[in-house]
Write a structure and sequence with these properties.
This protein has 26 helices and 2 strands. It is mainly α. One of its GO terms (biological process) is exocytosis.
């Protein structure tokens, strides 16, 4: 009568029988056959096999194993003893077959052969069960692991059975099942953002870390005691399972947050040297294959940068909206460390630093790409910001000063930290700063321009008409104290140059001339004004000392009583301001009556000096400063009559 296990599994009987007959045919020519183990889940074979009482390496004595069937040994996980008995039964069965014992009873041979096969299958299934239970909540006792290690590692095993390969496959399947159990079965959707994916990866990392710690600290020592290392097999099995799970998550990852979470986990969490959480947990001596295939990694980085470009542009839109809301609310800028302050520079610095730092944690290539994206987005943002501000109602000295400071902070800060990536932004930032500076100057010029009209008039001779103008300059300079250097100094010098230039423009452009006492009084008045202008700007800190001789030279020509000394004053003026032109000399000479011949001689001498300046390289080569070049003087009939 056939064993119950065979009766319940006819398909298995047919498959095992076919293999057995092929094996036995090979045995006749090549010696004892090896029958491979079956897959997991097969039924326990018959207990009707002969019992073999022989010592084993399990530690159990012969008297303990006496009377136990192979099935009992397998059930009790005395795997080495079970295998020894199966080996003996198989060898004896093959010998009996060779001696023609079963010529009259082929069915009996097939039944006994099938029992051997099914017991081998049961042994393989028990190996699978032990591997699956090893990392489970209850675990497996050390004795069972030692038995398993002995079977898998034993030198006496016949190679065709591939017990080690079977064990490695079982470890790999166990790792895959455990890794797949971490987090939801499906990858989070794009609508769930990066938090849901981060939770999945956190659970995955915790499970893998916990399992590998158990392998290293509890499982591996048992295998190693049997002479069979198991650590690298488990490590590679889990690595492969994590890689497969990550490939699935990467396939469905969408949006900047999910893509970054995935890349960051692969590079910085799983890829961290202390991922396993203990210094004594050694990784494989050989490098593991990439967690993500190079083409998958490249695709994720590419998609991430595409989303990042849109996100950073959106962040700059948000920065602009915040600035516009402050302008609309007429909020005055803060004063921080003595400087007008707007959050613009801080917001941009934080935006760039955060994204660059995050990208750099993943790879240098992604960091470089992110820098390019930030630089390009900032380059597009600057003209939009400038246009929006200059068209707003918030254009005043404090806001202009705050924006000049912000641009200077961006220029120096970003270029110092990322010189290669933001180098091309230096010119746009300087250009924006200059535009804000020019708007600042135009505001002052609009305020003080009407005050110049009273110069060189009858009222000017007897009144201090310059004081209101200088009061506005002093008030304006108070704002410059809260503007960053060098822009504050440069703007102050430009105001200094503007005041001197406009003063001379009104003096040279007037149509009426002073005569007699009025001319001398006018000369003295110009000298006093020049002193007041010089003292004021010196007190404000202007370093444009080169402007100091312009008004006094003209005043000396106007008030000089010894006409031969006029040439000396004219020479001083031309040498100090080589950008002066013939028209300016004519206008200066027309301020008083010198006679046609003297005027022609002075004009000719002035032209010789000017030609020498041109020959030497021009006004800018001679001094580099510009003053008279920007003064337009009308060529009136009075000037022509006086000088020609």
């Amino acid at each position: 009568m056939q064993p119950a296990c065979i009766m319940r599994t006819p398909g298995l009987l047919r498959r095992s029988s076919r293999f057995l007959f092929r094996s036995l045919r090979r045995t006749l020519d090549n010696g004892p056959a090896a029958v491979p183990g079956a897959t997991n889940g097969q039924e326990v074979p018959s207990r009707a096999l002969d019992h073999v009482s022989r010592p084993t390496s399990t530690g159990a004595g012969p008297e303990e194993l006496e009377g136990k069937s192979v099935a009992d040994l397998i059930t009790e996980r005395q795997l080495l003893a079970a295998f020894e008995q199966l080996r003996h039964l198989e060898t004896r069965l093959v010998a009996e077959k060779a001696s023609r014992t079963f010529e009259q009873d082929p069915t009996g041979f097939a039944r006994r052969a099938m029992d051997v096969c099914l017991h081998y299958d049961a042994l393989a299934s028990e190996i699978d069960a032990i591997v699956n239970e090893t990392l489970g909540p209850d675990g497996v006792d050390a004795a069972a692991l030692a038995e398993l290690a002995g079977v898998v590692h034993g030198d006496f095993l016949r190679t065709p059975r591939h017990w080690r390969q079977h064990w490695e496959d079982a470890v790999r399947r166990s790792a895959q099942e455990r890794v797949r159990s971490a987090g939801p079965g499906e990858a989070p959707g794009a609508a769930e953002g990066g938090s849901a994916l981060a939770q999945v990866l956190t659970e995955l990392g915790s499970l893998v870390r916990r399992d590998l710690q158990k392998v290293q600290l509890e499982v591996h020592p048992v295998y190693a005691a049997a002479g069979f290392p198991a650590w690298e097999t488990y490590l590679r099995a889990f690595h492969g399972a994590v890689a497969q799970r990550l490939q699935e998550l990467a396939h469905n990852a969408r949006g900047c947050e999910q893509l970054y979470v995935l890349l960051d986990w692969a590079a910085n969490v799983y890829g961290s040297p202390d991922f396993l959480g203990a210094q004594n947990l050694a990784l494989s001596s050989e490098p593991l294959p990439p967690l993500l295939a190079p083409d998958v990694w490249a695709r994720l980085e590419s998609e991430y940068t595409n989303f990042l470009e849109t996100k950073i542009a959106s962040c700059f839109d948000g920065i602009l909206q915040l600035e516009q809301s402050r302008w609309a609310d007429a909020e005055a800028p803060d004063v921080l460390q003595g400087r007008y302050h707007t959050p613009l520079s801080f917001d941009v610095h934080m935006l760039v630093a955060e994204h660059v730092k995050a990208a750099g944690a993943i790879s240098k290539e992604l960091e470089a790409t992110t820098l390019q994206i930030c630089a390009r987005a900032l380059g597009l943002f600057l003209p939009r910001f400038e246009k929006a501000f200059l068209e707003s109602k918030a254009v005043n000295e404090p806001h202009l000063g705050a924006n000049i400071n912000a641009c200077e902070e961006l220029r120096t800060g970003l270029l110092a930290r990322f010189p290669g990536s933001f180098k091309e932004l230096e010119k746009p930032l300087v250009a924006a700063t200059c535009d804000f500076q020019n708007r600042l100057l135009r505001g002052l010029q609009g305020d003080v321009q009407p005050l110049f009209r009273v110069l060189c008039t009858k009222a000017w001779l007897t009144q201090d008409v310059l004081q209101p103008l200088m009061d506005k300059v002093v008030a304006f300079a108070g704002h410059l104290e809260r503007v960053a250097s060098p822009w504050a100094q440069e703007t102050l010098q430009e105001v200094h140059r503007y005041v001197v230039r406009e003063y001379l423009a009104h003096v040279l452009g007037r149509r009426e001339r002073f005569r007699g006492v009025e001319r001398l009084t006018g000369s003295q008045k110009m000298g006093q004004d020049a002193q007041a202008i010089g003292n004021t700007f010196q007190g404000l800190g202007s370093e444009a000392t080169w402007l100091g001789q312009a008004i006094p030279c003209v005043a000396d020509i106007l008030g000089e009583t010894y006409k031969d000394d006029i040439q000396r004053h004219l020479e001083t003026l031309i040498r100090s301001y080589p950008d002066i032109r013939r028209d300016h000399v004519l206008a200066i000479l027309s301020l008083r009556r010198l006679g046609r011949r003297r005027n022609q001689r002075l004009l000719q001498h002035a032209q010789e000096l000017l030609r020498a300046v041109v020959k030497a390289g021009g006004p800018r080569a001679a001094g580099g400063h510009v003053l008279f070049e920007e003064i337009e003087v009308p060529t009136s009939v009075d000037v022509l009559i006086t000088c020609i």
